[in-house]
From TrEMBL:
One annotated GO biological process: Golgi vesicle transport
Organism of derivation: Paralvinella palmiformis
Protein name: Trafficking protein particle complex subunit
GO cellular component: endoplasmic reticulum; Golgi apparatus; TRAPP complex
InterPro entries: Bet3, NO_sig/Golgi_transp_ligand-bd, TRAPP_component
Protein localization: Endoplasmic reticulum; Golgi apparatus, cis-Golgi network
PANTHER family: TRAFFICKING PROTEIN PARTICLE COMPLEX SUBUNIT 3
Domain of life: Eukaryota
Annotated keywords: Endoplasmic reticulum, ER-Golgi transport, Golgi apparatus, Lipoprotein, Palmitate, Transport
Amino acid sequence: MFDLNEMVMAQEVLVMPPYSGELFTLTYGALVSQLLKDYENDAEVNKQLDKMGYNIGIRLIEDFLARSNAGRCNDFRETADAIAKVGFKMFLGIVPVVTNWSASGDEFSLLLENNPLTDFVELPEGHSSLNYSNILCGVLRGALEMVEMEVAVWFVQDQLKGDNLTEIRLKFIKRL
């Protein structure tokens, strides 16, 4: 027979330590810094960040679906709410505002007042076209593709470039 206290202590050993947002931010900063050294221009770094994000997104969606118990979204508006209120909250600890819907309902913006990826970050001189957080665009694209939605995702505004907030735009292209 097991003692309850022994079981609790054994579980504590097996549980991973809590995720550190600062550690992730610094690690991501080191990744971007290395990409800037490895590639000749910002456009190529942006492309590599998007590609990495896409690969993360196609795997992250499984974790999202398992942990969130989210059902199938009926339209793009429900998808936008799930992304902002559940996905961003779950993985980054923030809830962006969903706004700027197109008249046709196939395009919207996510407004981030605080982007956790950009804590302690300043764009290096000569890299004004770098989309530092472009990995987020890739994650969104990859995750949505895995639930049979092709989307285009891009930055409209970026606090690192002097804007008041960060705006990510998503446009529904087609059902896959």
